[in-house]
Amino acid sequence: MAPPIPLLAVRGSDGIHLVNGHPKFTDSETFPRDPSKNCKVSTFSRDGKLFGWCNGEAVNIVSTADSKLLHTFDLPKVIGLEFSPKNTIVATWQTYTTGKDGTAGVPNLQLYDLKTGNCVKSFIQKNMQNWCPHWADDESICARNVNNEVHFFEKNVFDTIANKLHLQKVSDFVLSPGEHPCKVAVYVPGSKGAPSFVRLYQYPNFSGPHSALANKSFFKADRVTMLWNAKATAVLVTASTDVDKTGASYYGEQTLHYIAVNGESAVVQLPKNGPIYDVVWNRNATEFCVVYGFMPAKATVFNLKCDPIFDFGTGPRNAAFYSPHGHILVLAGFGNLRGQMEVWDVKNYKLISKPTASDATFFSWCPNGEHIVTATCSPRLRVGNGYKIWHYTGTLLHKYDVPANTELWQVSWQPFSSGVFPAKAIVYQAVPGDIPTEEPKPAQAYRPPALRNKPVTSYKLHEDEPPQSMKPQSTEKTVSKTALKNQKKREAKKAAKQEAKADEPAAPVLQSAQNDVPAALATAPTTGDPETDKKLKNLKKKLKAIEQLKELQASGKPLEKNQMEKIQKEDALLKEIEELELGV
Predict the structure, then answer these.
(1) Is residue 554 part of a domain?
(2) What are phi and psi of 519, to 5 degrees?
(3) What is the C-alpha separation between 341 and 330, in angstroms, rounded?
(4) Which of 332, 436, 504, 571 counts the most CB atoms within 10 A of its CB?
(5) Is residue 181 reached through a cis peptide bond, with omega within 30 degrees of 0 on the bond before it?
(6) DSSP per-residue letters across 122-188
(7) What pLDDT is stored for residue 513 in this prediction?
(8) CB atoms within 10 A of CB 414
(9) From the CB of residue 291, how many other CB atoms can be counted at a distance below 10 Å?
(10) What pLDDT digit, counting tens, does each position of 484-527 carry?
(11) pLDDT tens-place string over residues 545-568
(12) How far apart are CA 9 and CA 446, in angstroms?
């Protein structure tokens, strides 16, 4: 049976509609376009079987298989909408408002049972940030942050708080993915000279002096981002400050920390200074990629020991995206960069393609692991809105530009459960496509008026660093002391033979039309002065080295700057040899 065709939800100022993915790229045959100009939110369920949106009049929930309307909730002002992992509950959030006389507002966070359509619980949630409760993947627990505490509910029973995690001024938490038992990462910001810290717990073991699985404290943290790996064995914590006190960065200051559930922790050492733009785990949960450093930014893959295993060099990038199967990595530069993408084979660390999505503000992998959508969305950019669908080999398969005087607000792929799309072998040959790829016009560097009529000189602000493997090579294995001693003996013996050979007087070599070796390289009789003979010998060695460099250059091998400087000294060496031989 052929795998399904993922849908793409497209929401903008002209309404919301669903589009069939590759190879159709047509509007869904079953989902009627909603033309409302006030569609503030839309989302798929985690398995992609349900789709919900608010059109400014009500919240609608439909089945993606046949677009059958399952529920309608009279909530015209909803701007937050999320499904629980197993589609048991749908959560909605509206902006919190108080009465004109200052009285408390009504609850603005509602939880609805998707079987009955009844509201099972309402909460007051003033801030939109982290508004949605967090569920474990099996929905055994649900948690939300309330007044320095994390409240836990079990089996979607919200009338009783089953457990509490109390830490002074806890400001954020993240539940681990995967099955029971669930783990919790909590963040407490520092105050009055005390450091900030992140702790890991296993539900429901929150009390006792040794209840925490791991603890990591650090200074310089106004906020953090916590990211679990897929196997729930470790968390990456990006700690950020709003202001860099050294004045080196407009973005503040960031550090990256690794915390494992076995208690191990470390600071991830990044070899280039500057902001941390993106941190992503591979699906295999054994490696992660970091994009960091002042532009041009570096990108490096680390293992669970926080050792670098591959460095992608430098380039115009600020984001990284692993494919759903973890076998492909895309490095991209979006936002204020030109939209250049690098598509890499992760297993072999081989570059597959380098497409460019100009003015892109959004990127997402299709669940099949083969196709990519990039989009230019408002309000990040209000002109040139639209989306493009690519194959990872760089071929542009579909392009859609929104009509004039309209805006594109959101595009999102329909998700699928793991295993629906099997991983396929990576291909490097670009797949065929009917849409020509638009080559971006090269940007012209600014030249002041005084230099505009003068020749352009090549000058680089920086030298780009090429990709390189950071894994220790097999030839660099630990050598025993005996083997090392024997190796040194062999090298010394070889050097002695070469030196003895160089000291032997050679037969005179006549310069001829067929011999292109400089006359100075032909062995000349001794001058009678030991010091002069010694100088001549050293000069001829240098000249011989220059000849070898010239041969390398002729074969097409690029030379280093110091090697080029040696070649430029050839004439001076020849002149000096000639003067010594003539006794000048």
Answers:
(1) yes
(2) -60, -30
(3) 7
(4) 332
(5) yes
(6) EE----STT-SPEE-TTSSEEEEEETTEEEEEETT--SS--EEEE-TT--EEEE-SSSSSPEEEEEE
(7) 37
(8) 21
(9) 23
(10) 666 666 766 666 666 555 555 444 433 433 344 444 444 445 66
(11) 888 888 877 776 777 777 888 888
(12) 41
Query: How many C-beta atoms lie closer than 10 Å to residue 409's C-beta?
Result: 19
Q: Within a domain: residue 555?
A: yes
- The answer to whether residue 23 sits within a structural domain is no
Tokens 């830490």, residue located:
167
pLDDT by residue (tens digit) across 33-81? 999 999 999 999 999 999 999 998 999 999 999 999 999 999 999 999 9
Are the CB atoms for 423 and 369 separated by under 8 Å? yes
SS3 of 211-260: CCCEEEEECCCCEEEEEECCCCCEEEEEEEECCCCCCCCCCCEEEEEEEE
Cα Rg, the chain, nearest whole Å: 33
pLDDT at position 262 over 50: yes
Number of domains in the chain: 1
pLDDT of residue 506: 44
Q: Is the pLDDT of residue 258 over 90?
A: yes
Count CA atoms within 13 Å of residue 245 on its CB side. Answer: 3
Question: At 382, is the pLDDT very low, low, confident or very high (cuts 50, 70, 90)?
Answer: confident
Nearest C-alpha neighbor of 153 from the set 137, 174, 133: 133
Give the span between the Cα atoms of 508 and 140, in whole angstroms.
93
163 is a domain residue: no
In order, the DSSP letters of 253-310 are: EEEEEEEETTS-EEEPP-SS-S-EEEEEE-TTSSEEEEEESSSSEEEEEEETTS-EEE
State which residues form the domain around 538.
509-584
Over pLDDT 90: what percentage of the chain?
A: 45
| Residue that is written with structure tokens 């050294």 in the block | 246
Q: Dihedral sign, CA of 400, 403, 407, 409?
A: negative
Q: Which two tokens stand for residue 379?
A: 């309000």
**3-state SS class at 580:** helix
CA distance 406 to 104: 38
Q: Which two tokens stand for residue 372?
A: 């990519």
**In the β-sheet with 15-20, what is the strand arrangement from edge to edge?**
15-20, 7-12, 408-413
- Average pLDDT in the 443-467 region? 66
Q: Which residues have CB under 8 Å from 92's CB, separation 6+? A: 54, 59, 73, 75, 78, 80, 81, 109, 110, 112
Q: Mean pLDDT across the stretch 471-479?
A: 50
pLDDT, average across residues 159-167 = 88
Span of 297-301, 460-464, 548-552, 566-570 with lowest mean pLDDT: 460-464
CB 284 within 8 A of CB 326: yes
Give 340's DSSP letter: B
Query: Between the CA atoms of 462, 467, 470 and 476, what dihedral angle is there, to the nearest 10 degrees?
Result: -100
- Give Cα separations from 311 to 266, 272, 473 (angstroms): 20, 12, 15
pLDDT at 301: 94
Question: What pLDDT sits at residue 461?
Answer: 52
Residues 6 or more apart whose Cβ sits within 8 Å of residue 170: 145, 148, 149, 150, 186, 187, 188
How many whole angstroms separate alpha carbon 212 and alpha carbon 234? 14
